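Example record

The entry below shows one chain as it appears in the dataset: sequence first, then structure tokens.
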Amino acid sequence: MTKKGFEHKKIIIFIMNDGDVVTMPSNVAWEINIANPGPSEEAETDPQLQRNHVSRGTASTITITAPKKRKSNVPEPDTGRFSPFNFKPSLQSDLENTPRARKVQLLNEDDKDSIYISPSTGKLGDIEPTNEDHSDTDEDFNPDLISVQSDTSSTSASSDYSVLSEDDSENIEEMQPNVIPSVANANDEDEWQDIDDTIPNFEEFSENCKINIPDDAVTPEDYYNLFVTNDIIAKMVVETNNYAQKILAGSQLKPKSRVRAWITTNLDAMKKFLGVIMVMGLVKLPHINDYWSRKSIYRNQYVVSAIKRDRFLLILKFWHFSQEDPDDKNKLSKIKDVFSMLLQRFQTVLIPGKYLVIDETMIPWRGRLKFRQYLKAKSHKYGVKLYKLCTPDGYTFNVNVYTGKGDNGRELNHGKETVMRLIRGLENEGRTVVTDNFYNSIDLAEELLCKKTFLCGTLRPNRKGLPKRIIASKLKKGEITGVMNENGVRIIKWVDKRPVNMISTCRDHDLAIKDTGKIRRITGEAIKKPQCVITYNDNKKGIDFSDQMSSYYTTLKRGIKWFRKVMLELLFGTALVNSWVVYNIRQPNPISKKDFVEAIIAAYTKTPITESNPDCQNDVPLKKKHTFEKKGEKRRICAGCYQKLRGTLSSREANKKVKKIKSFCVECKKGYCLPCFYKTHM
């Protein structure tokens, strides 16, 4: 007999002579062959036996051919039961040693989900699992072919098998739950229990953030210098000068190249350069050259008075942060020196308190880069991804630049490994890590518990090892359920506007719904949430606040050098926000970030920020005194005539046709004929 392609939701059950129960779902293409040496006399005369395809002869072989490609993560079945995708060699040997299959019943009717036959009476009845232990070995068995051999000596025909009566079949649907209990639920009961506050048994961290700054730090410049120290600026000066000398020595420059005007920079010049970059973050213009434009709509007099255009552009061209090494395989070799110095200052100035917040942020970049990332949910979808560890106040304690998978391929448990790297040095003190569902898993929670660190955050429902009856439970709005394992890992599901899955190891995170102290605007109802959700919302906002403050007055501009953009974010985004946060914590009178940046700009450029008289809005700036000198030492082109010719000619053609003169303006140091001098200066 051959049976193929059973209908959906049908179950085939074999009951062997020793009481073993073999079950197979029928929604896959099984092949079951029952070979008989010949039908018995009863089978030839009994029409009921013929209808059910059951022979009372001596069945010699039952062959079950399983699907070859499908796999499953279903846990090991209970003792005495057979899972179609997970076999035990011990079970195979038991089946092979069975004297013979007493009864075989195949069901394919539309009105029944499953069927079984009692091994003792041959009638419809309960199946009792055997007491034999089939878990002696953990080896996997490939179920391509299973054969159950039977003894050819048969017993009496009246006790070999039985056929279902119509009365018995009416009770099939009622008794089905007792037939095949849920494997997931059985495992859940063993591993998961009700939530209590007894574990974990180590103490929570109770201290606040500790700030390590000198007492003489008063001004915004002093606080910013705690992070961007003179040593860091001096390192940038050295590397910038070295790179400029390398370019000058190895390149063939054009006669009028701007690079020929390069002079070695120093600490004061670098500070002016950094101050002007911060000005460009406050005052946005379409192009960097527009700050020095002669058009009144663009020209920024503060930038013009602080530094010359060509000097600024040359420092920007050669701006470097680390010594170049062609043999260095580190993908961050361009920034590693200054980056490591900044991280050391981040981790020295402030020591976090009880809560640590971890999330990722993006630095926009659409150019070519091996470790450029794409994050659909971010406002800047393409760029360099940073993993950050922050405090709830928005202070960034640690930063990890993601450079893609390593030489060994894709990193397993990437979220877990990222968290463990970021909190290095803060373990074993009872702190609480707050993360989102990208990082969270049961493995991470148990790893943190081993290091005496708590975890709280959202959870993806498809993570491994979760209790199925909690994740798959259907709850109404406001309902909550949850369980805890023996290590203290809590899995909680709560429904507000939508289902929320949470993972926590904190002792006070239970199933109680607490009042948040807030009221809904429309209905006036009190807003209530579980304690784990309250903890997550109160602390997760710290990293969002840091990203938000970094985006204000950002200095990021388009460029072709990725490392420059990363350092702009670290120097004028992360470091600037950190210094502002610490300043507002320590000083009695907090100030806005704009005022904080203005104070640093004035100190770095050594140019005071003045205010114009609001009553004189139409004031015209006073013109300089210009002196016309007739006879100069050398002939030069007339600047006024040259500008006229440039309206219709190229620069090369204009240079050939413009007249050469000896007269010039003493103050402007440019050649002018007399008509052009009066037209330009009068």
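Notes for this example: Residues 562-586 form the longest helix (25 residues). Residues 628-681 form one domain.
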